[in-house]
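Predict the structure of Carboxymuconolactone decarboxylase family protein.
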Amino acid sequence: MDESTEYLPEVYQSFRRRFGDVVERHDAVARAVDDAGPLDERTVRLVKLGIALGSQADGAVRSNVRKALEAGASREEVEQVVLLGLTTRGFPATIAAWTWAREVLEAEDRP
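Done. Here is the predicted structure for Carboxymuconolactone decarboxylase family protein.
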């Protein structure tokens, strides 16, 4: 497994291997959706992070933190998106997302 996918769960990787054609089509739709409007990649990732937080999707929170950072978002921007969940999604959901986001942020700090 290469470094860029080492954090992906085995179940996700096995699904991708088993249903490669479907996954390729899904990935193409995802790219088309991301490119369908005027938002830049950084903003798209921050919005998706907020959506992931709202749905309490652990993997999506982690993924979108990684992708937001790769797209140029700052740690502070990622943290603010998580904090914004407090008054909309509630304290427990925000703390869960904070935990997932911090794990990714801390991993980014390691050499």
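The radius of gyration is 15 Å.
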